[in-house]
Structure formats: C-alpha cells, structure tokens
Amino acid sequence: MSEAYRRAGVDLEAGARAVDLIKEVAASALTPEVASGVGGFAGLYRLDDDRLLVAGTDGAGTKTEIARLTGRLNTIGIDLVAMSSNDVACTGAEPLFFLDCVVVGKVVPDAVASIVSGVAEGCRRAGCALLGGETAEHPGLLEPDEFDLTGTCVGLVEEGVLLDPSRVREGDALVGIASSGLHANGFSLVRSEVLPRLDLADEPEGLGRSLGDELLEPTAIYSPLIVELANRHLIRSAAHITGGGLPENLPRGLPGDLGARIRRDAWTVPPIFDLVQMTARAGHADMFATFNMGIGMVLACEKATADEVIERAGSAGHVAFSLGDVEAGRGVRGLMPE
Amino acid sequence: MSEAYRRAGVDLEAGARAVDLIKEVAASALTPEVASGVGGFAGLYRLDDDRLLVAGTDGAGTKTEIARLTGRLNTIGIDLVAMSSNDVACTGAEPLFFLDCVVVGKVVPDAVASIVSGVAEGCRRAGCALLGGETAEHPGLLEPDEFDLTGTCVGLVEEGVLLDPSRVREGDALVGIASSGLHANGFSLVRSEVLPRLDLADEPEGLGRSLGDELLEPTAIYSPLIVELANRHLIRSAAHITGGGLPENLPRGLPGDLGARIRRDAWTVPPIFDLVQMTARAGHADMFATFNMGIGMVLACEKATADEVIERAGSAGHVAFSLGDVEAGRGVRGLMPE
Questions:
Q1: B129-137 vs B94-104, strand pairing mode
Q2: In this predicted complex, what is the ipTM?
Q3: Which residues numbered 34-63 in B keep a CB inside 8 Å of some CB on A?
Q4: Which of A14, A15, A139 faces B188 most closely, judged by CB atoms?
Q5: Does residue B231 sit at the A interface (CB-CB below 8 Å)?
C-alpha cells in the first residue's frame, strides 16, 4: 500500500480491485482468436497460424499537467507513444502503427498540433506509423487549457519470436535498462506533494536543469531494442516498469512460482527520485511502489547471454546493467534494506 | 458555422484548423505500409498483398456526463465501441478487437466495472473481442465521479471487399440507416443549452420515456450489417454520421467531385431532435450540422441493388430507406427548405 500515493488521491488498492472486476466482465467479450486478454502488458490476438497481433493502450497520465503548466507541449506525445509501445514491445512484437486521442477543454489549433508533433516524434522513435487519431473538445469537463492524452499501439509478432514469461527459469539473469527519469507515472503524487513546495522553474542542486525540464524528460522508447533482442532469441521476457514500480511490474515478466533477487548496488537511483522523496517526505517502500526509480525495463535471459544483451542495449543508446537473478518464490527481494 | 454549438463552447472551425495542422505533422510519421492515414473514417495499414488492417479511435464524448448525472453507467461503453467500430465498418472491415481507456477522477471499482460491462456488451454487438484496456485515475484533473472514455477498434479487410468512396458514381443511390437517437455527438450542446432548462427525470411529451433514458439510448452498432453488405459487394461506400452531421460526414463517403441530393421526406426526424432544437432555440442548419437527425449511416450503392440493401438492413434489425441520389457537384443538397 502506498500511503503517499493515497494522500495524492490515487488509490492503488481500489485500482487492483477494479482490475479484478474488469477481468470478470471482460471475459464475456472474448473470441477464440484471443491468445491473452486483459491483464498482461498487452493483448495478443491470433492473426494466422504463426503470427499474432499485439495491442496495448495507455495514457500519458497527469504528466500532461506539467506540460500545461510549463507551456511545453511538444514532447508529451513522445511519452504517450512510449507508454503503449513499450508495453507492446514486452511481447517482442514490432510496433506497426499508433493512434492517439487528444481530449482538450478547448481546441487551440496550434496547441493541439504541438501535442501531435510529439506523438509523431514518438512514432518515429518507436518505428511505427501514426495511422490516425481523434481530437475531442470537452468544455466544462476540462478547463480550457487542460488536456488528456490516450493512445493505442498495434504490433505484430511471429510465434517463434514471442517473449513469454513462462519460459523464464530459476537462475536466469535479470538485466535492467535505465529509465530516462520519471517517465509518465507517479505524477499525481508529484502534483500533490512536490509542486506545492517547489517551483517548476527552480533548478534544484544535482539536477543541472530546471525541475520542469527534468519532469518533462520524455519516456525512453525501448521497442527497437527489445524487438532486436527478441528476433535474435537473446531474451525470454521483458517487463515494462510503470505505475506500481518494480514490485508490481517485474513479476509480470516471470512465471507465477518464481521471483527476483535484486542487487540494490547494481545501479544508482537518479537524483530526481531523491528530490521527490525528500520533498514529498515519502518512504522508501512508497517510492519503489510508485516510481520506476531509474529502471524502465527489466529483461530476463539466460545467464550466458546477459553480457551480449547489455552490450547490444549499449549500442542502441541505452544504459543497461546486471540487475539480479531469478530465484524460487514469488516477489521481488533486495529492494529494501533487510 | 454552428452558432449554437459555439455558444456551447465547442468550436468546430478551430477543430477543422487543428485537423489541417495535424495532417501536416502526422505526415512525418508515415511508413510505406500506410494506405490511408489521418483524415478518413479509419486508418488503413497494408498487412500483406491482399489484406489491410483498419483502425479507428474515438471517445464517448461528454455523453459520459449524462451517464454520471443519472448514475446509469452500464451502457455508455456500448456507445464507446460503436463510435470506432462504426468508423472501421465504413471500410468494410470486420472488427477483430477493441481496447478501452477509462480515465476517472477516482477509482470506484464497481463503477469502473459497470462502465466496462457496457464496453463488453458493445464488443459482443460489434462481433469483436475486448482485447485489453486501461483504467487511469486523474485526481484533480477530473472530479471524483467524472470520467472520460476513449477506445480503439482494429479490423481486417480483404482488398477485394474494401469499400472505397472513389468507386461511387453519379446516379448511384444513397441508402440511409436510422440512428437510435443522438448517438454520442452533440452532448456539449445538450449540456449547455438543454440541461439547464429540462430535468433528466422529466418525461417530455412525445418521448414516451424520461429525457435521461432517451439521451442515454446506446449508439447503434452497424458493423455486422456493413460487413455483410461489403462481403456481398452490394455497396460501394459507407459514411458514419457523427459530429458535423450529414453536411460534414456524408461527403466523406463520396468522391471529391460528387455530391448528394437528399429527399427530406424520406424519413421523419425523431422527436428528441425536435425537443433539443426547441429547448436550445437552435436553427435548422445548426441542428443538421451538429446532430445525426435520425440517420446514423449512409450507404452508396448502385440503384439496382438499393432495394436489396434496404431489405438486408431490415433483416438485420435496422430501419433503412432510400435517402437520395449521388449527383454532380460537391456538397449535400435538399436538407434545408429551398
């Protein structure tokens, strides 16, 4: 339970209960082609004998508020594409196309175009097409300059390339790939606990830039790398670290009876997380349960291939490191001082 | 220009300017497989030599507010599925799957499950799977009981079955299919001009039920019918009548040099539209530019097949009628008294 996040108005337990209820009602709308439905990082739909369509949908969360408050609207679309294309990438699927939905309080054409230019940049980074989108005006429901972004990414994967948590074995290696910052999760906590105490124009020690610039840093897009690693059969599963952090998301890349042993000294938590923790007076466990803490993606692979995975991630411009091991027993261990 | 809608805070001209700017920025994120991008009813992506994936994204608009105010949350998801599956159907594509995104001010598990049960029902009506979805909590941005719904539908169509406005010829017949009411467009106008004057519990003369029940009537889902007609090669194009009404949407189903001659006596505008017009004191042109006025879909076909199209629509449970003809010259004629 995240106490700090509950203070921020986000109830993760209610969210989990909602997911359980949704699974029940969604079960009535399955077709035989659905290979995996609501609950995984992305949905799998059998296209033909050896190929699956993969789809994920997500929003940019209330990171949109930081874009609105700073007036910098042209990168939040990158976050939007990242959120669902990274989910789709967790299956090994190559993203084919993306569709965005921009809901605004009032349509200001230049503002909407600026938002969508970020979506287009995100699509270029993910290597997919911006196939369509929708702009809707909801006066009264949103203030004139408020907006909300959601989007959907559709990919394609051959069955032989599919990443699959059930293939992970005890003793496998876990490789962490660095995040580019907060990505697009935890912003309700930032808004309620940090923004009342710090100004977005401030340049806190250690950040080397303004708080606004740091918070707006676009979410890293991992799909080209993951697709390459999957096609080369170098990894067995991938877990996108989003809301709920490592404790909630890492196990989604593992079989139900296995867990993770993390080496906390494998990486240094970036300064922005320390700043948020101090300013929000949040606990260690709360921070790990809310933010990615510097790790955007966790890959599971055979021990023998871990070095090659780390090297290829580096060549693709990512910082990767040996994060820990897969061991018996559910859960993530080693995150907290024991 | 819709004066009544501008009073309601929705600026259709700004929306059109935004679409033009979006087309420019989106052009930078196309891939060779994109057969048709931003602008049509749905996006087309070439899957292989003879098949195309088709995707559409849309929201339920502020019809969500009527659901919230009446506390009836279990049908608005049908509207959500209808909006994008009807768009996808305009290509003749069979819908494969749908993903929803529910953004709430506060997660109340039973409320979210009720909303998603409607999404599941919509998927069953459209004949597609509910492949995935996302529930996000945006405290502060939305009030605790406010919510916003967006969704994406992905379909598949063989090239030989593809509906294509460019195939429509002068002299072709136009078949109208009745809407089930307001569908999910025009609700900002309803909220600003009707709700201050009428109570949702009122039972105005002619409706035979409460205003709330009438406004919440789920959007008709046409995809099974359109897919059948396309597979039988009985129609050449289809136009989903949404925001902007017949004047804006009907021409999207026609080649650029052709227009429509409508017979206004072909159908009776349902009482709810008269009630909205009177209560909102809106002009005739405003109403046609904002609402579907009783027509949810317009199909173009050879004159010789029009009777069979109407008959098959009837067998599928829809009310269809001969609406007019395709003639030279852009635009929609015959809607206004001349």
A1: parallel
A2: 0.93
A3: 34, 37-38, 40, 42-45, 47, 53, 55-59, 61-62
A4: A139
A5: no
